[in-house]
């Protein structure tokens, strides 16, 4: 820490209780009361340097021979500052440091210690040293902290604003271009390797210890909230990158908001009034700090991580922050919901009337905001653009709406075990996702299955209403196999699953046979492309010959596998027919024959009446046309 030495005389005062006495041997002729401290001094050293003391002493109308008594209770810095001022007036050695220069500068201004009374007066000396302080990063931080002790005078003299401007300039610049120390603590305030510069100023030669973008976060976090806010506004006005500003705010929030460092838990409310490793922070102070942090966050999308925003939102609910603060956070999360992860969405319900374990209403508002701000892009996305093969295989690119759909399906599966979760609320959240946003409906099927398991009292109509959230045509083979054996699903849904799985298998088998027939038609001799004895010019390379053979072998194995799966499904279907009387008309409705012939148009009508959703009808018709062809 830099310092400036003033004066040359040795100590000329000693303290007795609450009294300061001068040891020059001359009786004191003025007594100045500052707070609880009394200073027994002499008029001349004070008159020659302070305009205020000169005027007050002249106005003192004490009797001749009696000491003049003055009251200076309003001096900035109190008795501690006046003690240093007194030593300066008497020429006693003092040191100006970043810890006391602001207070001395304000006290000198209060006492009117200008150049009109003496050259090199305290105001001028303090300003010279302040310029040196502003050139050093750590000293500027220390000086800015002391401004709070004399806030009104520091603001009037623009000391705080000059210090903040100096810090902002350094934070925005490349630290490698300067020699100010960057990271430090109280242990290195006095450097034994310090050197004495001109005019008695002492400065250390510390070099920057870090050159990364976050070098200033730790020192800036030492400031109070009001000063830190002004510093952030200053660096923003000087063009600092929003990412750096957001990172500094995250650092500050994690330091003073203990709940930010905890995972989502229903026990978080037990730590609202707990202290941090720094100091005990009240709930009201934490609430005010959080609301200020939210207001300072950059508005650019993606600058602040969704993880941090969701933790801020969870903390805001625990601390009962203002509705505008929570709404602000919900909109920020909604703008980049596709970047969130499931664990951060599991926000415990902190309302006074807790109905569900997790705050589902909050997630629904976030999802509503995501849908609203992406309305244009969602409207331009047509389900017809996505091919059926992509839907079934899941090879469609993960667009933001697709990522959000997967996120919401996972969230529904997590909250579904809550027995207090009502069916309408579950449906409302799931229905916000457009149907074409899900390449596969395995996620929503899993959530529905978990909900049915946790709510066994649902009626058949409620079960069917719940299952309308998924499309049986968009279930994978694994999910279809599970659904076909799921006793929790309504009978109508199981029939749909079996029908579409049978349809898919028959279509796949027909496709393989079509390829097989096409290959055979190109090789009438039936020798899979091998040259005949009379065909001299048509010679096939051995490698190509082996490749063709391998392809046909793989194709035939795949056909056998599909036939085996079809046979297994037929057996499962027959078991269901035997175990459930209501399934006695199932083979007729599905159009099955003993030899599994395709259904005729007349026989397909009952199946159409049985299907609950309009989707099976065109598929059935498509299958019928395929068979007729």
UniProtKB/TrEMBL annotation:
Pathway in which this enzyme or protein is active: Protein modification; protein ubiquitination
Alphabetized UniProt keyword annotations: Coiled coil, Ubl conjugation pathway
Coiled coil: 552-579
Biased amino acid composition, Basic and acidic residues: 596-608
Limits of the NPH3 domain: 214-504
Residue ranges of every copy of the BTB domain listed in the record: 28-98
Positions of the UniProt region annotated as Disordered: 596-629
UniProt cross-references to Gene3D superfamilies, sorted A to Z: Potassium Channel Kv1.1, Chain A
Family, similarity comment: Belongs to the NPH3 family.
Name this protein carries in UniProt: BTB/POZ domain-containing protein At5g03250
Native source organism of the sequence: Prunus mume
Primary gene name: LOC103342138
């Amino acid at each position: 820490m830099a310092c400036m030495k003033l004066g040359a005389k040795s100590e000329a005062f000693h303290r007795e209780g609450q009294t300061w006495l001068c040891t020059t041997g001359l009786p004191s002729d003025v007594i100045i009361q500052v707070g609880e401290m009394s200073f027994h001094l002499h008029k001349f050293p004070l008159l020659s340097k302070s305009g205020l003391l000169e005027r007050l002493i002249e106005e003192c109308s004490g009797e001749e021979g009696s000491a003049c008594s003055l009251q200076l209770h309003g001096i900035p810095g109190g008795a501690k500052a006046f003690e240093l001022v007194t030593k300066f007036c008497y020429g006693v050695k003092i040191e100006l440091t970043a810890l006391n220069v602001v207070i001395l500068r304000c006290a000198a201004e209060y006492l009117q210690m200008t150049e009109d009374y003496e050259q090199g007066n305290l105001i001028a000396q303090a300003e010279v040293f302040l310029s040196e302080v502003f050139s050093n990063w750590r000293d500027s931080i220390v000086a800015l902290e002391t401004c709070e002790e004399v806030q009104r005078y520091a603001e009037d003299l623009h000391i705080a604003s000059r210090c903040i401007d100096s810090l902002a300039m350094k934070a925005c610049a490349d630290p490698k271009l300067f020699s100010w120390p960057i990271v430090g603590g109280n242990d290195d305030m006095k450097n034994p390797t310090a050197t004495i510069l001109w005019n008695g100023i002492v400065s250390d030669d510390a070099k920057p210890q870090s050159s990364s973008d976050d070098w200033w976060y730790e020192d800036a976090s030492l400031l109070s909230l009001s000063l830190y806010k002004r510093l952030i506004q200053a660096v923003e006005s000087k063009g600092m990158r929003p990412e750096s500003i957001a990172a500094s705010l995250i650092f500050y929030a994690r330091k003073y908001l203990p709940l930010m460092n905890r995972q989502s838990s229903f026990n978080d409310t037990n730590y609202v009034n707990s202290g941090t490793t720094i100091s005990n922070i009240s709930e009201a102070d934490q609430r005010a700090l959080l609301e200020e942090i939210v207001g300072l966050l950059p508005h650019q999308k993606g600058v602040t991580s969704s993880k941090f925003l969701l933790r801020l939102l969870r903390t805001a609910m625990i601390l009962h922050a203002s509705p505008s603060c929570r709404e602000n956070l919900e909109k920020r999360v909604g703008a980049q919901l596709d970047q969130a992860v499931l664990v951060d969405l599991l926000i415990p319900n902190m309302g006074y009337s807790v109905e569900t374990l997790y705050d589902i209403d909050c997630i629904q508002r976030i999802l509503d905001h995501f849908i609203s701000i992406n309305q244009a892009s969602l409207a331009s996305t047509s389900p017809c653009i996505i091919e059926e093969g992509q839907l079934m295989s899941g090879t469609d690119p993960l667009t933001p709406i697709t990522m959000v759909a997967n996120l919401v399906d996972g969230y529904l599966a997590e909250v579904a075990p809550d027995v207090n979760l009502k069916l309408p609320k579950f449906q409302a959240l799931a229905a916000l996702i457009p149907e074409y946003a899900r390449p596969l409906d395995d996620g929503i099927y899993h959530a529905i299955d978990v909900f049915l398991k946790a709510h066994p009292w649902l009626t058949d109509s409620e079960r069917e209403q719940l299952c309308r959230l998924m499309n049986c045509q968009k279930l994978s083979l694994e999910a279809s196999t599970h659904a076909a054996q799921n006793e929790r699903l309504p009978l109508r849904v199981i029939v749909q699953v079996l029908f579409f799985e049978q349809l898919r298998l028959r279509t796949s088998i027909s496709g393989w046979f079509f390829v097989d027939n096409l290959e055979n038609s190109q090789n009438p001799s039936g020798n899979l492309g091998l040259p005949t004895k009379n065909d001299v010019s048509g010679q096939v390379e051995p490698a190509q010959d082996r490749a063709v053979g391998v392809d046909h072998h793989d194709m035939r194995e795949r056909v056998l596998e599909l036939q085996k799966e079809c046979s297994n499904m037929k057996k499962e279907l027959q078991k269901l027919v035997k175990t459930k009387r209501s399934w006695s008309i199932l083979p007729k409705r599905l159009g099955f024959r003993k030899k599994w012939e395709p259904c005729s148009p007349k026989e397909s009508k009952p199946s159409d009446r049985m299907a609950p959703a309009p989707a099976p009808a065109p598929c059935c018709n498509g299958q019928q046309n395929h068979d007729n062809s």
